[in-house]
Amino acid sequence: MIELEGVPELIDPVMVAAFEGWNDAGDAASTAVAHLEKEWKGEVFAALDAEDYYDFQVNRPTVFMDGGVRKITWPTTRLSVVRIGGDKPRDLVLVRGIEPSMRWRSFCNELLGFAHELGVELVVVLGALLGDTPHTRPVPISGTTSDADLARRMDLEETKYEGPTGIVGVLQEACTHAGVPAVSLWAAVPHYVSQPPNPKATLALLNRLEDLLDLRIPLGELPEDARAWQVGVDQLAAEDTEVAEYVQTLEEARDTAELPEASGEAIAREFERYLRRRDGGGPSSGGHATADGGEAGFLRDGPGGRTRPPRPPRPEAESGAGADRGKDGAGDEDADHARDGDDAREAGEDRAADGDRDDGRGRATDGDRRGDQGPDGNDGSGADPQE
Q: Shortest CA distance to 226 belongs to which of 345, 359, 142?
C-alpha cells in the first residue's frame, strides 16, 4: 500500500529517475539524480521494500556504525521531492536506486502508483551507455520516447529499437501503456575509460535535462570536476601511444560525422545556452549494456596498470555510423537516437578543455546508426537504448 502522508501538494511535478547497474555506465545517470537531491535538498518520503525486488547475494546490504550501534543499509529504491521556486515554480519527484533483480513489472507498477498519486505529468529516465566516443569531445546525449506526438512536441527521437532491454526501457514502456508521458535521456560514455565517476557525462545529462524541462539546475563544482576529469584522462592517454592513437581515430571519425552539423544555427543555440546560464547566476555487479544490446564489463587494467583499448576499427568501419556506434549502456530507444548531443551546452565548458570544434550539438554515438540495428543508444537499460 502506498502511503503519501506528509507529502505536500506538488506544482507541475516531473518524475526524474535513474538506476545503478546495467543502465548506468560510469555512474553518470545515478550521480545526476544524486546531484539534484543534494543541490535542492531533496526529502525522502518513500522507499520500496527491498525484499520484494532485490537478490541480496547480487546486491549485498552494508553494515555501518552509528553512534556505536551497528546498523544495516539495504539495497533499494528511494523517492524524494524537491521544490523549485523562482518565476516558474515546479517540483521534481526524484527516484534513485538499483536496477531490481526480480519482479520488474511489479516494480514499475509501484513507481507508477506513486506517479499517479502525486499527479506526475512527465517521467524522465536517465541512463548512460558505453560507446565509441572520444573523451575529448562533448558527450553525446540522445533523447527518445515511444510516443510519436511527444517526440514531435519535445524534439525527441521516436524509438524503433528492438532487442534486449533493462529497467530503463521497461519503465518507459510501462509509462506509455499507463498513459503517462515518458522520455529517456542517454549519455554515451567512452568505453575505454568507463570506470566511475564520469562527471563530464553527468554534466551533459543535467544540461540536457535543463533544456528538456526549461529550468536552471545549480551545477556547483560539477563543471570543474568535469574539466579535471578530462585533463586526467588526457594525461593517461598521452602516456600510452596505443591509447593516444586510438583516441585520435575516434576523434577523426566523430569530427567527420559531425562536420555538416557545425552550422550557424547550432552555434547560436550553444551561445544562447551560455548566456542563459550566465544571466541566471550561477551498483550492481556485472557489465553495462552496449548499443547492440550486449553487455560489456569495465575494461581491466593491463600489466602496466593502464586500461588498454581494443584495436581501432578497420578504416571502412570508422566512417559514418561506425564511428558513432555508441555502445549503449542502456537502452533501447536511446541508442538509436543517441545523436542528440545536446550536451553541446557542455561545449561552452568543455570546448576549451577539449580544444575541439564541436558543433555544439555533439551528435550521439549511436550504435544503431550503424545499420539501424542497434539498441537504441539508450533508452532504457542496456537494451532498450539499449533498453
A: 345
- Residues 324, 365 contacting (CB under 8 angstroms): yes
More confident residue, 209 or 352: 209
**Radius of gyration of the chain from its Cα atoms, rounded to whole angstroms:** 20
pTM for the full model? 0.69
CA dihedral 342, 162, 374, 165 (to 10 degrees): 70
Which among 198, 115, 213, 199 is positioned nearest to 156, based on CA atoms? 213
Predicted confidence (pLDDT) per residue in 295-338, tens digit: 543 333 333 333 344 444 443 433 333 334 333 444 444 444 44
Q: How far apart are CA 169 and CA 137, in angstroms?
A: 27
Find the angle CA(205)-CA(329)-CA(62) to the nearest 5 degrees: 90
Q: Could you say which DSSP state residue 22 is in?
A: T
pLDDT for 342 beyond 80: no
* CA-based nearest residue to 320, from 364, 376, 357, 369: 369
Say which amino acid occupies 380. Answer: G
Q: In what order do the strands lie in the sheet with 43-47?
A: 43-47, 78-84, 90-98, 14-20, 122-131, 182-190, 141-145, 157-158
pLDDT the model gives residue 204: 96
Instruction: Supply the DSSP symbol for 306.
Output: S
Residue among 82, 91, 88 nearest 121 (CA): 91
Strand partners, 262: none
The candidate with the shortest Cα–Cα distance to 227, out of 356, 351, 362, 364, is: 351
Place of cell 550503424: 370
Distance CA 258, CA 369 (A): 13
* Listed residue (126, 199, 195, 146) closest to 349, CA to CA: 199
Q: List alpha helices for 193-327, DSSP H.
A: 199-213, 222-238, 241-258, 264-280, 315-318
Buried b (16+ CB within 10 A) or exposed e, 289-317: bbbbbbbbebbeeeeeeebbbeebbeeee
Quick check: 166 and 289 in contact, CB under 8 A?
yes
Grid cell in block for residue 254: 566523430
Distance CA 296, CA 289 (A): 6
DSSP, res 58: T
Q: Do residues 94 and 81 make contact, with C-beta atoms less than 8 angstroms apart? A: yes
